[in-house]
Amino acid sequence: MTTDLPLVPLGRTGMDITRVGFGAWAVGGGDWAFAWGAQDDADSISAIRHAVESGINWVDTAAIYGLGHSEEVVARALRDFSDGDRPFVFTKGGLVWDENDRSQLPVRNGAAASLRREVEASLTRLGVERIDLYQMHWPAEDGTPLQEVWQTFVELKAEGKVRAIGLSNHDAAQLAVAEAVGHVDTLQPPFSAIQPEALESILPWCDAHDTGVIVYSPMGSGLLTGAFTAERVAGLPQDDWRRTSPMFTTDLERNLAVAEAMGRAAERHGVPTPAAAAAWTLGFPGVTAAIVGARSAAQVDGWLPAATLSLTSEDYAGIIPELVP
Fold first, then answer.
1. CA-to-CA dists, residue 49 to 3, 129, 212, angstroms
2. Residue 124: pLDDT above 80?
3. What is the DSSP letter of 36?
4. Helix (H) or strand (E) holding 58
5. Which residues contact 80 (CB under 8 A, 6 or more apart)?
6. Helices 69-78 and 41-53 meet at what angle, rounded to 10?
7. Of 22, 49, 155, 293, which alpha carbon lies 20 to 30 A from 220's?
8. CA neighbours within 13 Å on the CB side: how many for 236?
9. What is the C-alpha separation between 31 and 99, in angstroms, rounded?
10. At residue 1, does pLDDT exceed 60?
C-alpha cells in the first residue's frame, strides 16, 4: 500500500507501518463481557475505510472483540480494496468464549489445539490466507506453560499461517521466557499519559531486543479525548465496561486533569486533543506505533494528525512533568 504518511519498521517483521493504526475493539459491538456498548456496523465500516483511505496502513482487531464480530466487520470493510491498497491486519487469540453465554468472561487458553482452532477461525472470519500479525491476547491461565504457548506461535509462523507473532499484556519476565523459544516480533501493552507503567521495564526490554511495540489505549479508553466529564461517565451505558473501571471511577478526577493539560498541548499544535494524546505515546523510546479506536469517520479525523505529530519537551513537561522522554 502506498501512503503519504510516515512509515516506521515494525521490529524485524519486514512490515513498515504508519505511526497510528485503527483499533477495532469497539466495532465488535455490544452484548458481551468487555463491550463498549451498541455499535452500528455501517458506521464501523465507514470509519475503517476512511482511515485506510486517509493513509493508515494497519488495523488491529481480536477474535474476542464482539465474539468474532469485529473480525467479520473488518473483513467487510476491507474486501473491496485491491491487494496493493489493503492494509495489514493484526489480530489476537488465546481467549475462548462460551457460545451459549455472551456475558460470560472468556477463558485464557494456551493449549496448542485450542490456539490452532482459533487461528483457523480468524482466517475464515477475516477472509485471508495468512494473518499479518497474530498475538497472544493475555497470558494463559489454563496451565499451559508460556514456553509451550510460544512454541505453537513459532510453529504457526513457520507453517505460513501467520506472518509475524507477538504478545499482548505480557510483562518483561514473560517476554524473556518467550524470547528463549523464538523471537518475539511484537508486543502490545497498554500505554498512555494516565497509564504509563510500560515505561518501567517493558519498553526498555523491547527496545533492547528489537521487538516492535504497538501500544493500546493511548487515549486512556476515551478519557484523554477531551470529551469526557464526570457527568458523561455517569451516563455511560450499562453494557460499557468503563462504568466500573478505576480509570473512570476512583482515578477520574486526576485523569480529567491530565486530559485538560493534553488539550492545552493540542491547542498549541492546532490539532484535536485525541491526536495529542496518541502522539504523547510516540515520543518514548521503544514505542513503534499506537492503536487508536474509532466508532465513526469523524473520530478518525480526531486522531489522524498523530501520524505526523511530534510533541516538544515543553509539551510533555506541561502534561506530566516527571514523564518527559
1. 14, 21, 25
2. yes
3. B
4. strand 58-60
5. none
6. 50
7. 49
8. 22
9. 12
10. no
What pLDDT, on a 0 to 100 scale, did the predictor assign at position 126? 97
Q: Over the stretch 177-220, which tens digit does the pLDDT of each residue have?
A: 999 999 999 999 999 999 999 999 999 999 999 999 999 999 98
Closest CA to 7 of 25, 21, 19: 19
What is d(CA 130, CA 107) in angstroms, rounded to the nearest whole number?
25
* Segments in the chain forming alpha helices (H): 41-53, 69-78, 112-126, 146-158, 172-179, 202-208, 230-234, 252-269, 273-282, 297-303, 313-319
Element (H, E) at 67: none
Rounded to an integer, what distance in angstroms lies between the CA atom of residue 145 and that of residue 181? Answer: 12
Q: Domains (ranges, CATH) in the chain?
A: 15-319 (3.20.20.100)
Quote the pTM value.
0.92
Contacts (Cβ under 8 Å, ≥6 apart) of 38: 29, 30, 31, 237, 239
Helices 273-282 and 252-269 cross at an angle (nearest 10°) of 100
Task: Give the integer Cα–Cα distance in Å for 33 and 187.
Answer: 24
Phi, psi of 23 (to 5 degrees): -95, 125
| Catalytic entry in 65, 134, 216, 316 | 65
> Grid coordinates standing for 270?
492546532
Grid cell 524473556 — which residue? 176
Cell of 119: 487461528
216 catalytic, yes or no?
no
The predicted pLDDT at position 227 comes to: 83
Return the residue matching grid coordinates 505526523.
308
Q: pLDDT band at 165, cuts 50/70/90?
A: very high
Q: Is 214 helix (H, G, I), strand (E, B) or coil?
A: strand
Residue found under cell 477461525 = 121
**Going by C-beta distance under 8 Å and a sequence separation of 6 or more, which residues neighbour residue 69?**
28, 29
3-state SS string for 148-192: HHHHHHHHHHHCCCEEEEEEECCCHHHHHHHHCCCCCCEEECECE
Q: Give mean pLDDT, residues 298-321.
A: 96
